[in-house]
UniProtKB/TrEMBL annotation:
A Pfam family: PK_Tyr_Ser-Thr
This protein's name: Protein kinase domain-containing protein
Database matches in SUPFAM superfamilies: Protein kinase-like (PK-like)
Superkingdom, taxonomy of origin: Eukaryota
GO molecular function: ATP binding; protein kinase activity
Residue ranges of domain Protein kinase in the record: 1-45
Amino acid sequence: VLNGQPYNRKCDVYSFGICLWEIYCCEMPYPDLSFAEVSSAVVRQ
């Protein structure tokens, strides 16, 4: 979606996984990176 590609279930699965990790660990994922850096890394992969 961020890269202009069509939306599919992979976006939901990735987002859900991040949410589960946050709930389980009670921490922010990638605390040393800004939101822009995380978004950029997701688009590149």
